[in-house]
Amino acid sequence: xxxxxxxxxxxxxxxxxxxxxxxxxxxxxxxxxxxxxxxxxxxxxxxxxxxxxxxxxxxxxxxxxxxxxxxxxxxxxxxxxxxxxxxxxxxxxxxxxxxxxxxxxxxxxxxxxxxxxxxxxxxxxxxxxxxxxxxxxxxxxxxxxxxxxxxxxxxxxxxxxxxxxxxxxxxxxxxxxxxxxxxxxxxxxxxxxxxxxxxxxxxxxxxxxxxxxxxxxxxxxxxxxxxxxxxxxxxxxxxxxxxxxxxxxxxxxxxxxxxxxxxxxxxxxxxxxxxxxxxxxxxxxxxxxxxxxxxxxxx
Length: 299
Fold this sequence. Notes:
Elements: E1 4-10, E2 14-21, E3 33-34, E4 40-48, E5 57-64, E6 67-75, E7 95-101, E8 112-122, E9 133-135, E10 138-140, E11 147-154, E12 168-175, E13 181-189, E14 198-207, E15 215-222, E16 228-234, E17 250-258, E18 264-274, E19 291-298
Parallel strand pairs: 3-11
Antiparallel strand pairs: 1-2, 1-10, 2-4, 4-7, 5-6, 5-8, 8-9, 8-11, 12-13, 13-14, 14-17, 15-16, 15-18, 18-19
């Protein structure tokens, strides 16, 4: 009942029904982050749509910036005892398999990566690393190269004892309806404001809870008539989705905001909203759920 649905079909005869974290074996599997050498363990649920003579094999891969960081490769049914490959399965039954991986000590840090499943078959002895490998087509969803399950980021073992320095401290909390809570500790204006260029902000964020969803940030640049002149919309930190933020770990993001073309005095407001639907803003304790960051003079 708590499985996350997938519904991907391989070769018109094998379906990945869904998956779920296994917190009893790996508490980290319920979060969107992990530290090096910690086990990330999940349970996969499969079924055959028709009798098959194929021994399907798969890879569970953690990939960052297109590079494999960690993974698990085995024939499906290989972790059960006794092993039960797919050619022994019965139509109508659901088969589960607990699998996982551990990021190495040199895994890229503070970057969101993908956890995905891909399928293949081989011929010959499973112990032979040179046996031929054959791709398996994904028939649902059409055109998919692999099946993404979730995202994950690797963090240093320890949380920094000191917060990064900021020019302007704010300590503002944004809260989502599901309880996700994110604090904007403060920001630094990195350069002087000149018309027609880019305004650079360095912002320090701290997740106060595990964050279940991904959120984008907006920065509105308003003129003296309270009219929107320019704006920024995008992730608060380019390399780490909010669902991969570690609670109490300060994260620094640099944001480029288009400057107004005309000289004058402008106010910068910021807020968070759900991505990509943009159906609600996180509660910031203000009537329009945006907070005043600064007033800047464009010369």
